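User: I've been going back and forth on whether these two constructs are worth ordering. Before I decide, could you fold them both?

Assistant: Sure. I'll take them in the order you sent them. The first construct and its structure tokens:
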Amino acid sequence: MTATSVRAPRTQGERARVQRIRKAPRAARWRRAVTPVLLVVIWEACSRAGILPPDKLSAPSDVLAAGWRLAAEGTLWTNLFDSLLRAVIGLAVGGGLGLALGAIAGLLRIGDDLVDPPVQMARMLPHLGLVPLLLIWVGIGEPLKITLVALGAFFPVYLNTYSGIRGIDERLVEAARTCGLNAAARLRHVVLPGALPSLFLGLRLAFGAGWLSLVVGEQVNADSGLGFMMMEAREFAQTEVVVLGLLIYALLGLLSDLALRTLEGRALAWRRGLEAS
């Protein structure tokens, strides 16, 4: 038997840590649900007690009833589908472009010289403040909404891709080169694993910025989508529908972030980080 096949027995502290890790997810799920449920209960109680006027903030039960009614009519599903379609296209375009340019600027010196300066200048501009100019460039139709989402997603992905690549220890790359790995192998075995944590952070930030941009974009002369549904409800003082739209946006953002966190946990299962006590 070789030395590498012998595994040292776990100490008592290591066994306790493994058991704690196995039990943590189940307990954490319950603990993370306590605060949101408590807030909803307090919200409902304040609404029923008259502390929160219904014309200012509808009760959760009224919001739920409005959602059930719109879902039964089919209006909610149509607007939700249109919003999801815009978000997917915008995130794919902005995220893909940010990933490509971030990799070029991070890996190549000439890419850093040519790509990074204009991107750093452009990121100082609030992309939501570009709406008047975008109205002139792309009009008030679907391109405006998709462009806003793409701009919101581009900069977080670009910056974190660039930072992740540049943050890799040069000694690891030199060691890989010394071991005979070619450029493609170094990218796969050194650069990609080293940049993945920053890339996932960029994706999470991009999704948040993308949803925020979509909220604004769908309130500019839209004829469908959750933002349009909210603006139409505002005209008729349907506060419960406005709140419903906001909650759906928040839920979509939460679900997308949860999906990315799950994917990150699987892709970075090799990484051992600090545990919260």
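The second construct, handled the same way:
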Amino acid sequence: MTRAIQVIAVSGGKGGVGKSNVAINLSVALAENGARVVLLDADFGLANVDILLGLKASNTIEQVLDGQCSLQDILLTGPAGIRIIPASSGTRRLSMLSSLEHAGLIRAFSDISGQLDVLIIDTAAGISDSVVNFLSAAHEVLMVVCNEPSSITDAYALIKLLKRDFGRSRFRILANMVADEGEGRQLFESLNQVCAQFLDVALIYAGTVPFDLKLRDAVRQQEPVILAAPSSPSARALRDLAKQVQTWPLPAKAQGHLVFFVERLLALNADADDAVAQRL
């Protein structure tokens, strides 16, 4: 029997909120707890997951799109046995994928679907088509916010877009780089109040990761903080997040939302092609 795959997209609306560090440490913590984890670096313009982990990628998603290799061929092995799908950095083409290319990329995950329990997607910043497509396809959206007005504004804009265009109504919110749990909950309440007033969505508090110099040191060492400084405040908070993730409900269907998203997207493209052909 095919097992359900938990697909979690980590986003933040804007850059600089620490979502890549959250995605990496969450992946490692889940793997330490026994899950088979694949981490997709979906920042197709400024990829950095392999760099943050001190890994060298000889091939990336770009070669998969070109048909030079399979998704299986480009997988890197990271800490705790997590598998990483690297993306090219500074490649404009990957930041401007067509709908068909994007659908083909997600379809390639069927090649490795039997090898994972959790797929973590580290999205790019902003609200590009690539970001929105991944967020709309994921089973869970983990929105990382920090205590800056632009972080709240951009997170709200992204939530509004996903609600309006894709009907997504549930988002998990993680407060990052704040002083303490109190500030994190206050940050969550600020965003929740705005969304409750203007959007028909449910925000769920996913926890707080405090600002921690140990995390900054770990980044310099190209290591996850939960391994470099396991007793640090940020490491403990990220391990708590992983424990919480393991209680989140699994997709109703074994394939997860990504498969259905791809089928729908391909069907839409096929319908569009048929319509064009009929007019010719």
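Notes on the second construct follow. The first helix runs from residue 19 to 32. The chain is about 45% helix and 15% strand.
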